[in-house]
Specification:
Layout lengths: L4 H13 L9 E5 L5 E4 L13 E4 L5 E3 L11 H10 L5 E5 L2 H7 L6 E4 L17 E6 L5 H14 L6 E4 L3 E6 L2 H23 L4 E2 L1 E3 L5 E3 L7 E2 L26
Parallel strand pairs: 7-8
Antiparallel strand pairs: 1-2, 1-5, 2-3, 3-4, 5-9, 6-7, 8-9, 10-13, 11-12
Helix pairs in contact: 2-4, 3-5
Length: 254
């Protein structure tokens, strides 16, 4: 792969315009042939990135090129390191915040989220009829390396069904074999969050899931994306999911 920064700049600009990378939030990375990777520097507006707004680091965390004397790696670089160390075939990793993903994450208790069996799940590598697919969910911590370590620990034991994970009240991380594929992967998975959010928001319908505290979200006896008519409208601040009362995390510069 040649220098991937132009592809990362294009993706960040598009995500910024769509409202998925507001201000300096989120971070993107892509690998070089030697296994090191360029990652967005901390505190940079994703709608105005230049080539010197990236830092080149190794999977071990050594900075090879800061791009600019004032640059430092994104606060979530350790998550990218975890993904590249777990999946050597991954050449790009996108960590993006969307409103819908964050809202859905606050309605889920447990460490995985059952996704509706939409046709576009094929784009995430699942070719099954009526697929039962879950996305891993991780708790959010101020100390990002703690999140990264939990990703390493869990994925070392059990690989996810799809190349994506959700960090509660934080954002979604996807990985792929190229920046272009990572961009497509992120757009596809966000459709699931849009769908989940819109169904819960609709005052005439609600999703029916049985949420367990174990390592999965088990669908109810109805189909995995069953809809029921509630006796009264469901306000936006309520949800058919059990709400996880996690402490609020402090703000950090991305």
């Amino acid at each position: 792969m040649t220098d991937p920064r132009s592809a990362l700049i294009a993706a960040a600009s598009q995500f910024y315009q769509l409202g998925w990378m507001v201000g300096t939030s989120g971070n993107l990375s892509a690998k070089m042939p030697d296994g090191s990777f360029w990652v967005t520097a901390s505190g940079k507006s994703k709608g105005q990135l230049q080539e010197n707004d990236f830092v080149r680091v190794t999977v071990a965390g050594e900075v090879l090129d800061s791009g600019d004397a004032n640059n430092r790696p994104s606060a979530e670089t350790s998550i990218h390191q975890a993904i590249y160390s777990l999946y050597p075939e991954a050449n790009a990793c996108y960590h993006v915040h969307s409103v819908e993903a964050n809202l859905v994450s606050s309605w889920v208790e447990g460490d995985s989220l059952a996704l509706p069996p939409l046709e576009m799940v094929k784009g995430l590598g699942v070719w099954e009829e009526n697929p039962q697919v879950t996305m891993p969910v991780f708790d959010n911590y101020l100390e990002v390396p703690r999140i990264a370590q939990e990703i390493r620990d869990r994925f070392s034991i059990s690989a996810p069904q799809i190349p994506a994970l959700l960090i509660r009240h934080h954002g979604v991380t996807v990985w792929a074999n190229s920046p272009q594929t990572a961009q497509i992967t992120w757009k596809l998975q966000n459709i699931f969050f849009d769908t989940l959010y819109l169904h819960v928001k609709n005052s005439d319908q609600r999703l029916e899931f049985k949420v367990q505290s174990s390592k999965s979200i088990t669908p109810s006896p109805r189909p995995p994306f069953a809809l029921t008519k509630p006796h009264s409208p469901v306000p936006i601040h309520q949800s058919p999911f059990t709400i996880n009362q996690s402490p609020k995390s402090s703000q950090r510069v991305k």
